[in-house]
Amino acid sequence: MMAGIGMEAALSVAHTIEEQLKARKKTEITAQALKKMLVQEVERNFGPDLAERLRGQTQAFEDIVVREGYRKRPFSKGVLARSLEDAGFSMREAHTLARAVEARLRRGGVRSIDADELEKWIAAEIEELYGPAARARYAGRQALAGEIFVEEAEGEPRVPFSKGVLAQSVMAVGLSPDVAYRLARDVERRLREAGSTVVKRDYLRRTVAEELMEVAGEEVARRYHLLRSVRRAVKPVHLLIGGVAGVGKSVLASALAYRLGITRLISTDAVREILRATIPKDLLPTLHTSSFESWRALATPYDTEPSAALVMQGFRDQVSRVAVGLRAIQERSARERTSLVVEGVHVVPGYMTHQYQNEVIQIPIMLVLDDENLHRDRFALRERETGGSRLSSVYAQHFSEIRLIQQHLVELARGAGIPLIPAENLDRAIDKGLEVIVDRLQEAYFDVTQEAR
Fold first, then answer.
1. Whole-angstrom Cα distance, residue 279 to residue 136?
2. Which residues contact 237 (CB under 8 A, 6 or more apart)?
3. 8 A C-beta contact, residue 223 and residue 386
4. pLDDT per residue as tens digits for the range 199-245
5. Structural domain spans, the chain
6. pLDDT bucket at 450, cuts 50 / 70 / 90
7. Residue 422 contacts residue 432 (beta carbons within 8 Å)
8. Is residue 64 a contact partner of residue 112, using CB atoms and an 8 Å limit?
9. pTM of the prediction?
10. Which CATH code is given to the segment(s) 237-452?
């Protein structure tokens, strides 16, 4: 804690917050919510001045993002320390500098910073700790490092080699940021030791795969090759993620899109909102309700408690309406040869086909949360994350309908041979999602190879 609170007092605050979380029996909390609790506890015990100072700082549980052009990566103290070692500092000096840079960033409340600006902060910290001569030596080593360029083929435009871009690529196969940046540095070192100033893209990929074999094994290296091929795929990839409210579809979709380098991410709820704005309620009433309440538009005045059949009838009616918009989006993306990720409760087996389906690699998956208690907790967490705009009480009131719809989706997915991914642990769900994608890509490229023969 950097607001000027002593260690003993800081530990007391941390203990109090820990007890509050245990009392609430919550296993998950966002960084934003945790910081709010921290600020409130500090204000209660030490006054508004310290609380305000704390609010303006970036805490250890909050990420700092480093921007390199249109790429983003998390700031890592360990990665920075090893980079400083590469620049000639001893291990102790490098780790001292890395801690000092991180402390300065967090005291300043930095949440996002350009890579060039970060270099200035590092240089300033070097000068403050070790003097202007050390800063000059650091700048000299950086200048002498020289740039390595990557080209796709002879005569084609070259692009600068970037450790940050490479690290993001290998993070896609499940490596932690720390390991990914260490591997990227090792690859760069190999290229420099070989005297390379221009390398072919295929050679770079082989070098990365060799490093991955050593660090993580053959399976991870194979996954890297396949995921990299998404960017130069003979067909665009359409990843379709289904599941009921509260299981974590949007989190999974964002994580997988990031790892695959897919920039087009579509929520079926957004498509429904657009249709609502263009089609009057009296024309398509089921479209103007939540998916688990669509039965109300079909019910008679005597239907106060819906039957399972009525709930599913309303749900299927809404899905069929939203599917029209989803079909148009998929067809346009197929014609433009653009990859995309679609997520939402309306991603239902049997409703996602379109006339250009053979022109894409379609990968459907279904996210399922079996633990009912955890499912309820997810709604409470969502309410806090959205500042109360999505009330957990609404979902609690219709929880039986939501669970009924999930059961229906599971049955449809099993019947269609669509993979079911457990949602209890979202990190494991991401790993499982990557496994499914890699397997489907492998099948798709085998099919393409067979067709070419």
1. 66
2. 230, 260, 262, 339, 360, 361, 363, 437, 441
3. no
4. 888 888 888 888 888 888 877 887 777 666 655 556 889 999 999 99
5. 7-55, 65-144, 149-232, 237-452
6. very low
7. yes
8. yes
9. 0.59
10. 3.40.50.300
